[in-house]
Amino acid sequence: MEQHLQAQFLAKYGRENTETYFTPGRVNLIGEHIDYNGGLVMPAAITMGTWVLLAPNNENRVRFSSVNFPEEGTFDLGETLSKTGKEWFNYPLGVFHEMLADGRKPGGLDLLFFGNVPIGSGLSSSASIEVATAYALNEHFDLGYTRLELVQLAQRVENKFIGVNCGIMDQFAVAFGQRDKAILLDCDTLKHKMVDCNIGDHVLAIINTNKPRELAESKYNERVEECQAAVKALQQEISIQNLCELTAEKFALHSHLITDETVLKRATHVVRENDRVHLAARALNEGDLPTFGRLMYASHESLKELYEVSGAELDAIVSFCSTYPGVTGARMTGAGFGGCAIALLQKGQEDDFTEKLTAAYTENIGYKPAVYISEIGEGSHELVAVNA
């Protein structure tokens, strides 16, 4: 891959790149829709991601090009930077904007990007390109950011420059991921610890429903409001700020305060899902994949029945997985309403699984899914360093 991209860089800019960096995408293994409720999430980096090739120039100018998109961007470092529309290079442009606002002094660069994270799949392609850019600039110019500061900068790019009000999980996971590890992350405090996640004779099958997700944002905001309504009802008797401050036992003692049936279902999912994250971390640390697999299925069922963020497409995938002998566990991952499901699949079954799932899904839904096979990979790092 690197040699092919180096040839592309040479063809584009007429000289060789000096460095190549990689930042992965991510999946959330378990812990869905609880990040904004004060709970724990357990993401892991995958082996798909974003490559950034660069070489300095003496023109005080930055040029962006991509293998994936035809649009190219150029700006002088002295000019005021602002979002230009919907072009892909707004993500790296935003990184420069935030670094310059911080008083850092990146110099002129020619940059070539390539990504193999499917756009809009819920695997964090935007966080991958943001952190990839930030990490590359920090390393090349020795700008002095810590890895956590790069994560926070990339989130600011998404929130302030791009205009998407995302949390910090995606940027954190792609920067801090480790091979064969998951991250047990408190999204409020950013306290985290690594969880052994050596899936041994398994791989992650990532299945993209290929369903458009236009309604996801409005439904997402609706779920946030419902959870806030649950907290307000519970505050009649107990002092809490977030649902995930409650154990299942304490929630059961006070759940009668939530009189709206829909709001009660949402809160029940959140509290139980937070418990499942704790149980999943223990199972993975002990190498107990069957228990982890059962927790994945339980998570999906809760997201389907209580939180109502699944759908026919995601349910068709998980239903097939539950009948396929080589799958240990499966669930939707991400916001829902389309996007992706993940399955813990025994190695050696990849082709058979893909063929049979594709046939079953196409028969039920009417169009094909996309299946990607990944392992749990490494966070942001430099791949090659060619000293020009």
Automatic annotation (TrEMBL):
The active site is at D170 (proton acceptor). Keywords: ATP-binding, Carbohydrate metabolism, Cytoplasm, Galactose metabolism, Kinase, Magnesium, Metal-binding, Nucleotide-binding, Transferase. Its main location: cytoplasm. It is found in: Cytoplasm. Its EC number is 2.7.1.6. Residues 8-56 form the Galactokinase N-terminal domain. This is Galactokinase.
